[in-house]
UniProtKB/TrEMBL annotation:
Listed Pfam families: Lactamase_B_2
InterPro entries: MBL, Metallo-B-lactamas, RibonucZ/Hydroxyglut_hydro
Positions of the Metallo-beta-lactamase domain: 28-159
Protein's recorded name: MBL fold metallo-hydrolase
Length: 313
């Protein structure tokens, strides 16, 4: 029997009372199961953190000694218990180390997606969907009109200009994906990376991911070369250089509103779109769908009288 209160949302995050742990808590807790290392899912200061090895490495770089009292790292497909709840990680395809979290309790399977992506990406593990009775899915882009464009055609847009480019991207996950894509599809470009992004790139490479050619930003190099340079910066730097001259401004995101003032629109998302969510539901085969992060009302309407859709947020 599906337990309606197996996962409940409170001010700290998603709480499982049957295992006495949180999924991606927003404040430090005694027991945290973390899906991936982005800061909105992985906070510092937890006592015990259960995650993949890559997620642990990123958190320890970002938070140093405050990352957690103790990490418990598990490989994909290997199960462990927190109290009476059996937990297994599967690749989520969102970034390196990201995990779908399968929880089994009293013969019922609950699958929490965290952030996830179906499209292939050589810089992280390919998603592995598994069957579950309840799918707890993010709905960031869960609107019937939302369809992410082909990522290869998007990255090739950077070839349309020979001017130097300031490319805004999140430091962890997105930047590494873009470095690999530019190396593969924009071969005339030279990639310069902001110093804050470099440590994450090194961790990727230490974990066996090949990104291709890039180097830390050099102001002289950028000034001496008036074309075909890409300077990759995190969002804070990108926004602070709003009046930067002699560069084409580009920000990589699936959000259209972040593209309005950019000279090239680079619609590259690391999340599922509407069709991806429908495909996920078809493959997981849940009896119920619980939604998070975004709007679940369109899924409720789509699956009316077919599958129960419960909105948690």
């Amino acid at each position: 029997m599906i337990l309606d209160d197996f996962i409940v949302l409170n001010k700290i995050g998603l709480y499982c009372s049957y295992g006495n742990f949180y999924l991606d808590p927003q404040q430090p807790v005694p027991y945290a199961v973390v899906s991936h290392a982005h800061a909105d899912h992985a906070v510092s200061g937890n006592t015990h953190v259960y995650c993949t090895t890559a997620t642990s490495a990123f958190m320890q770089h970002r938070y140093k000694k405050n990352a957690a009292y103790q990490f418990h790292c598990s490989d994909y497909g290997h199960s462990f218990y927190i109290n009476d709840v059996k937990i297994t990680f599967y690749p989520a395809g969102h970034m390196l180390g990201s995990a779908l979290i399968l929880m089994e309790y009293k013969e019922v399977r609950y699958l929490y997606t965290g952030d996830y992506r179906l499209t292939p990406d050589g810089t992280c593990e390919a998603i592995q969907l598994v069957k579950a009775d309840v799918l707890i899915t993010e709905t960031t882009f869960a609107h019937p009109d939302t369809q992410h464009p082909d990522v290869i055609e998007e990255i090739k847009k950077l070839n349309h200009t020979e001017s130097n480019i300031m490319l805004g991207a999140y430091a962890l996950g997105k930047s590494q994906r873009l470095i690999a894509l530019v190396n593969e599809y924009c071969k005339t470009k030279t990639i310069l990376v902001h110093h804050s992004i470099m440590p994450f790139c090194r961790i990727y490479e230490e974990l066996g991911i090949t990104l291709g050619t890039y180097q830390v930003y050099d102001r002289k190099l950028m000034k001496q070369n008036t074309g075909n340079m890409i300077y990759m910066v995190p969002p804070m730097v990108y926004n602070s250089y709003i009046k930067a001259i002699n560069v084409v401004r580009v920000f990589a995101s699936g959000w259209h509103h972040l593209q309005k003032q950019n000279e090239i629109q680079l619609l590259i998302s690391d999340h599922v779109d509407w069709q991806d969510i429908l495909q996920t539901i078809a493959e997981v085969g849940p009896k119920q769908v619980w939604t998070l992060h975004g709007e679940g009302k369109h899924l409720q309407a789509h699956f009316k009288d077919q599958i129960e859709v419960k909105i948690l947020n």
